[in-house]
Amino acid sequence: MATRGFLGRRREVREDLPPGQYDTGDSWPVLTAEVTPNLDPERWTMTVDGLVERPQTWSWAEMHALPPSEYSGPIHCVTTWSKFDTRFAGVSVDVLLDAVSPRPEATHVLATSTTGYTTNLPLEHVRGGQAWVVWSFDGQPLARDHGGPARLLVPHLYFWKSAKWVTRLTLLDHDQRGFWERNGYHDLGDPWREQRYHGD
């Protein structure tokens, strides 16, 4: 795992800080399990498939033509840092799911990145305004190191669930572990329950 931009622990304690976390302040550490790809947004696509009635693929321009949505709030990393007052913009996963009509037996989502990275999510945790595909951070294009041109954003879970360089969401009728889940991380990853590793 590569790590850059880590500026050390800050001692401030916040009531809205999950247990075992610290506030990273203005810093946003860069952590990745892969080589950072250099992706041309004009060639990037987003696909939602699997147990859906109408599988669909959107181009960069088509994604930007969808109803826009924003998230403002904290993000939490399993490595114990939290960053507050973030602002992301993109499109709600709800919009994508509405377009493809998930089948009744769909219970989980497997998110896949252009690098081949995967992570699993219960479908109920990406619906109802809980998840986005984002391409902007603080009003600027999302940096490559942080998943640009586009990443998944599931801010109520630890940040490894917010797959960088996301390109596909596949709906399944079962839980299929992704990269970190196969390597000992928790299947869900709720920061407030400190679900870092299997058995937590």
The SSE order reads EEEEEHEEHEEEEEEH
* Mean residue pLDDT: 92
CATH topology: Sulfite Oxidase, Chain A, domain 2
- Roughly how many Å apart are the termini? 22 Å
Oligomer: single chain
Largest sheet: 6 strands, mixed
Q: How would you name the CATH homologous superfamily?
A: Oxidoreductase, molybdopterin-binding domain
Q: Give the % helix.
A: under 10%
Query: How much of the residues is beta strand, in percent?
Result: 25-35%
> Which structural class best describes the helix and strand composition?
mainly beta
Approximate shape: globular
CATH architecture: Alpha-Beta Complex
Q: Outline the low-pLDDT stretches.
A: 1-8
Number of domains: 1
What can you see in these coordinates?
- The protein is mainly beta and 200 residues long.
- It has one domain: Oxidoreductase, molybdopterin-binding domain (Sulfite Oxidase, Chain A, domain 2, Alpha-Beta Complex), CATH 3.90.420.10.
- 9% of the residues lie in helices and 34% in strands.
- It is built from 3 helices and 13 strands.
- Strands 2, 6, 7, 10, 11 and 12 form a 6-stranded mixed sheet that branches. The protein has a 5-stranded mixed sheet with strand order 5-4-13-8-9. A two-stranded antiparallel ribbon has the order 1-3.
- Strand 6 and strand 7 form a beta hairpin.
- The longest helix has 8 residues.
- It is globular and about 45 Å long.
